[in-house]
């Protein structure tokens, strides 16, 4: 079937069939935990089905009709592959040669192929990327019919990935987490690459998703693309989604992230059941055209849980080129059952209910049982919170006009979404049609016909329930009938019985009734039972236990039942299947079938009487007195059965393929005629335990007849081919026998009925099985012998605990594949003639003897006697042998390998004789009296002898050697440590091979001379505590990483710790290598050392440092340090995965702090990395995700998310780094412990994406036992300022300390502790101390924490809350904290006053309880202190304390002065400098603080943040108060032209309150040069003169303070501030009344000859060129006219040539800033002869309204131009001046000569507006104006008071507010006094000159440029024209790079900002009219140029976005030409050949 076929949407009955039986078989295999969820739907087949023709063929041209089909049968070209648990990926994938893994299978699939999973669980991923197409057959992936295939994955992102693939069908599979744990996506479906094909035609149906969060996710993550790819034909139906534990909800059920459905196709979510999800349908971003109908969203919703919804929309957008972040629209929600509300909290100001979203909600049923208050909920935020009735009436949008809100009855609200009860509102009223073209499904999720039900399931009217009920019952799940009889009496046909015993007496079950347990409950029926059916109405009974006589009459089917009494089969065609029959079967006058049954413990298993005909197949008969009795006239057909007793046959027995037990006579088969039957022990799993499943090596396996066998066995498992004999197929179950001292050897050996002796268990165990020995003492000698079959399967005997003792010997003989572990053996362990024997963790108290055996042993403890090995092989590791004579004795050519072991306090260590190969590696020999190793291989120089990496030591040094080797050559002894003096004998060695050669004592030097121990040492091995058994090396030990690495070196040490790649010496790993690896900035010239003939790779040494942290991480180990030297590192993200240090030996990554370091001092300057001059000093190494030169630029969206991510790491220290320029987080820790992050600076972490996901300085998940201290974190989320952006985000934390950190300007929380919704606790037992939180939105956000100690922190100016407490915050301690706030509702930026504490729980109960607040101080000087209870409920803090006293303890939470030494930052600080000042200087307290000695010492830190000791009662806050007093002046600046007597600032004593009698005096002495210019009145410093900036800028004075006994003299510098003054006009432009239309006639009266100025400056000997320029103006425009005398008018311009024409050039500066370069108001016009185009240079404005006319005259031409002021972007002011000049160029075609005349001198005036002349404006009759000042005082008008202040009077009254006078705006305060300097009015900032006039346009103040718009407003001093303001360099520094807040660059030279082309340091740059340096592609003068991020003009070849271009020497891109080196480029400049 092609997907083009309309049958794509024909979903039909599921092909698996046998719906209910399949359901039972499928779910019987699931774990008990999962069954608790899913078998609740036991009559619900998860193999769902649905009705055809629900969705018509999509009206889309992309669908074509299917091709005509031939009637002839064709061989399918497509393949079917199988996957099975016992398969192999080397197989073909055929049914009899299945594959093993899902991953391998996925790789094979092509369009049209089918993949079938057999029964089993499969761990792996399947990836489909770019697979399939819409015009091909689908790829189908499904489970085998009747089998349960479960798919899972270690990949948390997906099990199946579908990216840009088409035509894939997934059905009938189970997707699951592992062991009840939640996992990520089950199926991940995604569009991610705009260049690939669309994802479409994906169907997921009839699947079960268990613990998947979500089941499937559909995402479109394509960003920045101009087209929207969308999805098509996405169908998700009939799926079951839920949790294995109903009390542990999954997060998302289904997740849609921008699933936009293309027009003409469908997106359908229908007939799904979603159980126990927090967010059933999660919709992130803008999904479109999705149909959501007939789904059941079932949950035990509790409104107090908060945050749980059935539909959870959230704003977002990946592709911001097309969409702004928004929510879903044009979706339809119908016929669903909701048990949780729909989320309507505003998302980007929108909800699903908005009219413009066009979403349809109708015909849905809202369960009033759980939705008791509202059906939509905003979770305490903004948005509609509606009851059902309010939803129906909402904005008259016709929502739920046909919907319902009523209590819905489900079978089980936690686990079963089936409907119950005839009065249930869900059983009728649903819509028949979903849209005009889509109908509601005709069948439900199980294939049952619908009759108008809501939700996924049809209502079964015949279904009733039986259960415990004292009343009569109505048969619903909630009100069941009390008995089966009652249900039958009521006429019930489909009866489900809940767990229990039902005493029915005499029960008659009539025809047509089905009887079964509810979800496989245990149900017992007592009394006589009879059942009778008909062909038309059979009686079906399953899963019931019957204790008494049971009679089956006509057409009755029993399955999965247990019959403890007799079963009688009578009448027509009764049958019994998959049942346990203990009372025997009597068949009387019937034809019946018995299959898959256990027939046990009866007098006669089956009796055939009265002519019965019986079909008996695949049954197991056991423990019957007689298995069969076949009377005369009866026929029994018996196949595939197991018989254990004899039978009597008088009638006919047709039998074959049966198994007869070996308990029958040995010649039994000779007495019967069955050709294929066998006689053998059937080998059940455990008969004694009643487990009759077959052992996997049973002879019954695959011995049956396939033609007779049922499809599945008693357990529901599919029968193999050929099938097994008996009721069960062989089981892979691992059978376990248990042994206990309290057991019984006649018992079953199960955990509940264990054996008593180990011998009994050993005799029962078989290959592949296990014996578990429970703790206790077993006094017996145990022998395990002649178990030779163990090689194939192995056998395990293990102790369950640590106290299982065999008080006797353990002897093993002739065994293979045996493993014994954890047992203590008091006698000797003997092994003989055995192989592949493994011992692990044994305690041997009398040694061991191994003879002629192959043994591997580890973790042994041997005492009493040593170990001997003879004629065999012993591999012994991690073993300790102590206190014996000979620890190990190897003889008779035995091979001994001894590794990672310890030989202690023995007479001899290892003795090897008889030419035995010996490998002794990485061992510790301690206090061995004689030889540690004594070897005799005198005649065998070729036999292995390896002695290396060993430590030989004694408690005290002696003169005894450590080793004796009776071998002269052919042995290795290296890399050892001998604890001896250098001249001490360490070994006795054979001198030669000669027969009588002597032995020789050798010291180390002699050994080395003989070629041995060349890298060994004599030294103290520095063991930690050897006398007490601790042989681990101490720090500095020579053992560390000095071993030899080869094949015999062990991977793990004595303690199980992995050795490093270069191993240590001895038995224990040393964490102390103490190495240092150097890392220097990439690009410094390092990285390739040596020369081309002898290259040297970097190794991290000083001489050969690494240039990447990644390289250092490859070699670092515990105790090592990675030293990062100063510089800027733009390597982006680094991943540290499973990196581990060790206790006392962490891996440290830190900055170099050596001030004399050559690397640091040579390459720590900013210019080296191209950083701007105002970038921060490189005093630390900078790690950035941005480019080197832009890491400090918040406007650049860095490509890297984070500097480093630590995943599952431990014992790591990160110290002293600067981390800036990332988009996600500075450092992310994802799982780890013992992590230290300290002394780092983390800033400029920002994302431009408008999403709810946050950015963090530090992101810490699942962290324990770690410290985060003294980090400076600021500017997190700097530009977007989202509440989701935090200084530190902690999700899951335990036993951690957060101390001494400074967190500045966090738009979310300073720190947030949070890990998902819900009330669970995610943080425990942490300390937060000595931190400073400055201007965070919320200082601390605490959610889900307990046991925290939050002490001695300082909170300053939080804009919303200091403490935000939500979810579960219990049993925490808040002490000694200081809360200071000077903000008001106007200055927070949030429109409300901040709060000290905000306590939230949504609408739920208060779970912020049991906390203690003690000795905390608050100083809210900006407003009344508040607290917040819930959302928006502000109350005074005092009332909050009183209200909360019943749930939390508040002890001494008091108000007082903070008493900061300095609380205000210096002015004009960058954010970088502000953070530094807060860290190093601000918010220290003085003795005037109300918190001095007011803290509690309990749990307080011992020192403050500065390291000052906290003695006695500590002070409150992060700092101890200091007795610091100082003379200070609060302002040291004054604008020039000031009034005499102006107050400059006020003196005070810092740290001391002012008092009467305080004096401040100007005194002589050093620094008193200028005291005559000042005076002091009280504490006010005043000016005695009017200062002039141009005369002198700085003045020094010396002041003496005498205040309350405190005396100080101090020198102050007073700075004079320059004030920009208007430029004087050089010339005047006449103002006219009537506008001029440019027509070139110059016939307006205003163009009198007096208006023209002749151009006299001859630039090219232009003696014949005559020209004059005329200028006029009005309030709307500037008018220009030119009269030109020219005998030859020409224009020969071609592309690339700019001046081959007659032209007039006008240069205009609308603001007359006299810059040396072009700026936003500066422009050059060219008016070219015979060219209608207006040519503009140096300005990006379009000048749309500028018009001109150029007309020929008899002697030349006339030009007339009108330039509106608006085109220049300025507002006309007649009192301002403009800059202007012009020239006229003459070009003659005949001679190709150029000549020109100009208004001013200078060859380069065109590019230097400072050379242009100033023009003012005058009225026609007005003389020239003077410099503007306020008009003279008059009776009405300006008047000057005696104190020098100015006021303006009108009608005798002072004017206040704004005043326009003589063309200038002034501002007068409320008293009518004229303001000067900075002014803030109605939220805007202005600057008023010293004479009062408001500045408009660019101006420079204190070396900083500002821009005031037309209104005069400087909206933010850091934010002006176009959000562009440049930080300015030193006033006397010519040529300075400047950077604005967006990170844009400008260049200042001689006080002006560059514009246009500028050559700087021999490099060309281009600056726009806004002064901003241009980057990337730029079109200039019709040519393309390219400027990289550095701004440097590109020349020559350049590769850009994968294409090559050539740029000429002047920068212009070459097109349609050949380059100088012979290559061709096309019209776009791209290299083509």
Question: Can you walk me through this structure?
Answer:
The protein has a 32-stranded mixed β-sheet that branches. It has a 21-stranded parallel β-sheet that branches. Strands 135, 136, 137, 138, 139, 140, 141, 142, 143, 144, 145, 146 and 147 form a 13-stranded mixed β-sheet that branches. By secondary structure, it is mainly beta. The chain is 4% helix and 38% strand. Residues 1-76, 1821-1835 and 1916-1934 have low confidence and may be disordered. The chain contains 13 helices and 167 strands. The protein starts with 18 loop residues before the first helix and ends in an 8-residue tail after the last strand.
Q: Name the poorly predicted regions.
A: 1-76, 1821-1835, 1916-1934
Tell me the total number of β-strands.
167
User: End-to-end span in angstroms?
Assistant: 48 Å
Number of helices: 13
- What structural class should be given to the helix and strand makeup? mainly beta
Using the CA coordinates, give the radius of gyration: 46 Å
* Beta strand %: 35-45%
Into which percent range does the helicity of residues fall?
under 10%
Estimate the mean pLDDT confidence: 86
Q: Which word captures the global form? A: globular
Biggest beta sheet attributes: 32 strands, mixed
Summarize the structure.
The protein contains 13 helices and 167 strands. With 2033 residues, the chain is mainly beta.
């Amino acid at each position: 079937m092609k997907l083009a076929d309309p049958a794509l949407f024909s979903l039909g009955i599921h092909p698996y069939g046998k719906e209910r039986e399949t359901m039972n078989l499928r779910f019987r295999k699931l774990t008990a935990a999962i069954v608790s969820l899913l078998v609740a739907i036991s009559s619900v087949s998860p193999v769902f089905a649905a009705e055809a023709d629900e969705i018509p063929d999509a009206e889309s041209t992309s669908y074509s009709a299917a091709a005509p089909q031939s009637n002839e049968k064709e061989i399918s070209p497509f393949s079917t592959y199988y996957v099975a648990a016992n398969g192999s990926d080397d197989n073909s994938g055929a049914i009899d040669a299945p594959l093993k893994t899902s991953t391998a299978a996925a790789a094979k699939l092509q369009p049209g192929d089918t993949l079938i999973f057999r029964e089993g669980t499969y761990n792996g991923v399947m990836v489909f990327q770019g697979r399939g197409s819409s015009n091909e057959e689908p790829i189908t992936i499904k489970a085998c019919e009747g089998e349960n295939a479960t798919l899972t994955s270690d990949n948390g992102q997906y099990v199946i990935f579908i990216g840009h693939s088409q035509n894939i069908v997934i059905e009938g599979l189970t997707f699951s987490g592992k062991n009840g744990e939640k996992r990520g996506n089950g199926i991940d479906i995604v569009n991610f690459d705009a260049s690939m094909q669309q994802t479409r035609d994906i169907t997921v149906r009839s699947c079960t998703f268990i613990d998947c969060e979500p089941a499937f996710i559909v995402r479109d993550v394509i960003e920045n693309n101009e087209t929207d790819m969308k999805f098509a034909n996405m169908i998700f139906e009939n799926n079951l989604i839920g949790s294995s534990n109903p009390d542990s909800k999954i997060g998302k059920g289904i997740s849609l992230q921008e699933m936009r459905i293309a027009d003409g196709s469908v997106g359908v979510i229908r007939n799904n059941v979603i159980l126990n999800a927090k967010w059933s349908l999660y919709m992130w971003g803008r999904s479109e055209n999705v149909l959501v109908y007939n789904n059941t969203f079932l949950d035990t919703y509790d409104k107090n849980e908060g945050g749980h919804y059935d539909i959870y929309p959230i704003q977002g957008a990946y592709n911001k080129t097309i969409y702004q972040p928004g929510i879903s629209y044009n979706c339809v929600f119908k016929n669903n059952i909701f048990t949780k509300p729909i989320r309507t909290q505003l998302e980007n100001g929108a909800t699903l209910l908005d009219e413009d979203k066009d979403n349809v909600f109708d015909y849905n049923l809202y369960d009033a049982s759980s939705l008791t208050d509202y059906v939509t909920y905003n979770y305490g935020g903004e948005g509609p919170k509606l009851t059902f009735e309010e939803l129906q009436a909402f904005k008259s949008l016709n929502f739920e006009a046909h919907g319902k809100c009523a209590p819905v009855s489900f079978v089980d609200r936690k686990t079963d979404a089936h409907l119950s009860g005839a009065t249930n509102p869900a059983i009728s009223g649903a819509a028949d049609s979903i849209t005009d073209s889509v109908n509601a499904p005709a069948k439900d999720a199980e294939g049952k016909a619908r009759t108008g039900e809501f939700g996924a399931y049809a209502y079964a009217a015949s279904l009733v329930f039986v259960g415990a009920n004292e009343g009569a019952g109505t048969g619903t799940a909630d009100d069941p009938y009390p008995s089966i009889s009652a249900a039958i009496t009521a006429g019930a046909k489909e009866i489900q019985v809940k767990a229990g015993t039902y005493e029915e007496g005499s029960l008659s079950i009539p025809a047509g009734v089905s009887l079964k347990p509810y979800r496989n409950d245990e149900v017992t029926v007592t009394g006589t039972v009879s059942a009778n059916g008909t062909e038309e109405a059979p009686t079906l009974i399953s899963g019931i236990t019957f204790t008494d006589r049971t009679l089956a009459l006509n057409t009755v089917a029993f399955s999965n039942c247990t019959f403890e009494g007799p079963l009688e089969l009578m009448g027509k065609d009764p049958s019994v299947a998959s049942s346990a029959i203990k009372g025997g079967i009597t068949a009387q006058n019937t034809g019946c079938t018995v299959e898959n049954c256990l027939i046990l413990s009866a007098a006669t298993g089956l009796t055939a009487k009265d002519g019965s005909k019986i079909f008996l197949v695949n049954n197991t008969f056991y423990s019957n007195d007689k298995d069969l009795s076949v009377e005369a006239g009866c026929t029994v057909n018996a196949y595939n059965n197991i018989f254990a007793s004899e039978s009597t046959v008088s009638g006919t027995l047709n039998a074959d393929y049966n198994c007869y037990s070996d308990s029958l006579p040995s010649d039994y088969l000779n007495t019967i005629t069955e050709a294929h039957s066998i006689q053998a022990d059937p080998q059940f799993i455990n008969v004694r335990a009643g487990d009759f499943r077959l052992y996997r090596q049973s002879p019954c396996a695959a011995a049956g007849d396939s033609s007779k066998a049922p499809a599945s066995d008693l357990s529901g498992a599919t029968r193999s081919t050929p099938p097994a004999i008996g009721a069960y197929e062989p089981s892979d179950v691992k059978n376990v026998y248990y042994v206990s001292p309290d057991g019984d050897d006649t018992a079953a050996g199960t955990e509940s009925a264990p054996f008593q002796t180990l011998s009994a268990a050993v005799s029962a165990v078989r290959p592949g099985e296990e014996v578990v020995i429970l703790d206790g003492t077993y006094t017996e000698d145990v022998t395990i012998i002649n178990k030779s079959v163990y090689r194939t399967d192995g056998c395990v005997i293990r102790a369950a605990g640590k106290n299982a003792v065999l008080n006797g010997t353990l002897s093993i003989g002739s065994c293979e594949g045996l493993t014994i572990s954890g047992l203590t053996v008091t006698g000797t362990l003997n092994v003989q003639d055995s192989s592949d024997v493994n011992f692990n963790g044994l305690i041997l108290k009398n040694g061991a003897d191994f003879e002629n055996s192959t043994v591997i042993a580890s973790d042994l403890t041997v005492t009493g006697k040593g170990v001997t090995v003879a004629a065999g092989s012993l591999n012994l590791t991690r073993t300790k042998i102590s206190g014996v004579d000979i620890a190990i004795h190897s003889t008779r050519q035995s091979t001994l390998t001894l590794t990672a072991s310890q030989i202690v306090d023995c007479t001899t260590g290892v003795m090897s004789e008889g030419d035995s190969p010996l490998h002794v590696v990485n061992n510790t020999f301690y206090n061995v009296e004689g030889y540690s190793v004594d070897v005799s291989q005198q005649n065998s120089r070729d036999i292995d002898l390896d002695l290396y990496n060993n430590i030989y030591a004694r408690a005290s040094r002696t003169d005894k050697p450590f080793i004796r080797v009776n071998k002269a050559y052919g042995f290795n002894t290296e890399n050892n440590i001998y604890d001896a003096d250098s001249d001490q004998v360490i070994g006795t060695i054979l001198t030669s091979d000669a027969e009588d050669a002597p032995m020789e004592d050798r010291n180390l030097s002699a050994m080395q001379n003989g070629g041995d121990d060349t890298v060994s040492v004599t030294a103290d091995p520095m063991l930690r505590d050897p006398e007490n058994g601790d042989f681990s090396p101490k720090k500095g030990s020579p053992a560390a990483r000095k071993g030899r690495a080869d094949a015999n070196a062990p991977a793990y040490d004595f303690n199980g710790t992995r050795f490093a790649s270069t191993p240590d010496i001895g038995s224990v790993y040393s964490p102390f290598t103490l190495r240092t690896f150097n890392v220097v900035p990439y690009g410094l010239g390092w990285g390739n050392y040596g020369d081309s003939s002898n290259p040297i790779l970097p190794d991290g040494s000083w001489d050969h440092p690494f240039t990447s942290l990644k390289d250092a991480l490859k070699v670092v180990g515990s105790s090592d340090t990675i030293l990062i030297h100063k510089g800027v590192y733009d390597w982006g993200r680094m991943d540290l995965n499973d990196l581990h240090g060790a206790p006392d030996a962490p891996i440290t990554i830190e900055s170099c702090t050596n001030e004399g370091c050559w690397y640091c001092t040579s390459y720590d300057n900013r210019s080296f990395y191209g950083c701007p001059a105002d970038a921060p000093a490189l005093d630390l190494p900078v790690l950035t995700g941005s480019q080197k030169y832009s890491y400090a630029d918040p406007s650049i969206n860095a490509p890297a998310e984070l500097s480093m991510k630590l995943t599952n790491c431990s014992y790591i220290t990160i110290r002293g780094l600067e981390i800036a320029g990332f988009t996600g987080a500075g450092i992310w820790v994802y799982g780890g412990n013992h992590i230290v992050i300290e002394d780092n600076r983390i800033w400029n972490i920002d994302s431009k994406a408008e999403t709810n996901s946050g950015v963090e300085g530090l992101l810490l998940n699942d962290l324990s036992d770690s410290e985060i201290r003294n980090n400076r974190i600021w500017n997190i989320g700097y530009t977007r300022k989202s509440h989701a952006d935090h200084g530190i985000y902690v999700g899951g934390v335990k036993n951690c300390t957060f101390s001494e950190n400074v967190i500045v300007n966090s738009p979310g929380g300073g720190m947030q502790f949070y890990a998902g919704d819900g009330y669970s606790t995610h943080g425990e037992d942490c300390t937060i101390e000595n931190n400073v939180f400055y201007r965070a939105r919320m200082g601390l956000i605490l959610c889900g924490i307990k046991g925290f100690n939050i002490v001695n922190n300082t909170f300053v100016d939080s804009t919303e809350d200091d403490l935000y407490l939500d979810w579960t915050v219990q049993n925490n301690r808040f002490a000694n904290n200081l809360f200071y706030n000077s903000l008001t509702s106007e200055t927070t930026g949030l429109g409300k006053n901040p709060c000290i504490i905000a306590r939230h729980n949504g609408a739920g109960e208060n779970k912020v309880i049991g906390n203690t607040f003690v000795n905390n101080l608050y100083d809210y000087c900006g407003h009344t202190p508040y607290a917040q209870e819930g959302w928006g409920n502000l109350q005074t803090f005092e009332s909050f304390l009183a209200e909360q006293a019943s749930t939390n303890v508040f002890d001494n939470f008091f108000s007082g002065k903070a008493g900061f030494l300095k609380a205000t930052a210096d002015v004009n600080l960058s954010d970088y400098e502000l953070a530094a000042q807060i860290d190093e200087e601000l918010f220290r307290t003085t003795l005037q603080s109300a918190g001095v000695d007011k803290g509690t010492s309990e749990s307080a830190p011992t020192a403050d943040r500065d390291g000052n000791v906290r003695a006695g009662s500590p002070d409150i806050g992060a700092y101890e108060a200091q007795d610091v007093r100082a003379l200070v002046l609060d302002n040291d600046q004054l604008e020039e032209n000031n009034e005499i007597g102006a107050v400059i600032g006020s003196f005070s004593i810092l740290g001391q309150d002012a008092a009467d009698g305080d004096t401040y005096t100007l005194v002589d002495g050093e620094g008193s040069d200028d005291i005559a210019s000042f005076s002091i009145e009280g504490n006010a410093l005043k000016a005695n003169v009017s200062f002039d900036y141009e005369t002198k800028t700085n003045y020094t004075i010396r002041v003496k303070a005498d205040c309350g006994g405190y005396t100080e003299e101090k020198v102050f510098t007073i700075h004079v501030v320059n004030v920009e003054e208007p430029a004087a006009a050089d010339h005047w432009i006449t103002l006219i009344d009537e506008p001029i239309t440019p027509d070139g006639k110059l016939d307006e009266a205003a163009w009198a000859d007096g208006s023209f100025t002749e151009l006299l400056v001859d630039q090219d000997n232009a003696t014949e060129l005559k020209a004059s320029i005329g200028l006029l103006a009005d309030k709307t425009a500037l008018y220009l006219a030119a009269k030109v005398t020219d005998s030859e008018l020409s224009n020969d311009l071609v592309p690339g040539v700019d001046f081959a024409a007659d032209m007039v050039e006008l240069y205009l500066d609308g603001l007359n800033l006299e810059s040396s370069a072009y700026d936003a108001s500066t422009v050059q016009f060219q008016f070219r002869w015979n060219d209608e185009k207006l040519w503009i240079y140096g300005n990006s404005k379009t000048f749309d309204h500028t018009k001109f006319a150029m007309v020929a005259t008899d002697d030349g031409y006339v030009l007339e131009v009108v330039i509106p002021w608006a085109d220049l972007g300025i507002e006309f002011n007649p009192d301002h001046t403009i800059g202007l000049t012009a020239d006229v160029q003459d070009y003659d075609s005949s001679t190709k000569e150029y000549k020109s005349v100009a208004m001013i001198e200078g060859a380069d005036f065109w590019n230097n507006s400072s050379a242009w002349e100033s023009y003012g404006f005058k009225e026609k009759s007005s003389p020239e104006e003077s410099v503007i000042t306020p008009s003279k005082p008059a009776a009405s008008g300006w008047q000057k008071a005696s104190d020098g202040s100015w006021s303006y009077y009108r009608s005798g009254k002072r004017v206040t507010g704004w005043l326009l006078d003589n063309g200038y705006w002034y501002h007068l305060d409320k008293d009518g006094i004229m303001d000067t300097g900075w002014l803030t009015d109605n939220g805007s900032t202005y600057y008023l000159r010293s004479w009062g006039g408001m500045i408009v346009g660019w101006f420079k103040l204190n070396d900083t440029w500002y821009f005031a718009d037309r209104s005069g407003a400087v909206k933010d001093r850091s934010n002006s024209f176009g959000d562009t303001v440049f930080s300015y360099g030193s006033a006397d520094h010519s040529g300075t790079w400047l950077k604005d807040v967006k990170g844009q660059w400008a260049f200042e030279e001689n006080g002006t900002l560059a514009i246009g082309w500028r050559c700087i340091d021999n490099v060309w740059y281009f600056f726009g009219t806004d002064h901003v340096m241009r980057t990337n592609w730029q079109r200039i003068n019709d040519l393309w140029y390219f400027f990289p991020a550095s701004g440097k003009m590109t020349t020559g070849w350049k590769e850009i976005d994968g294409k090559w271009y050539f740029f000429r020497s002047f920068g212009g891109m070459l097109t349609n030409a050949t380059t100088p080196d012979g290559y061709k480029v096309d019209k776009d400049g791209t290299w083509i050949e």
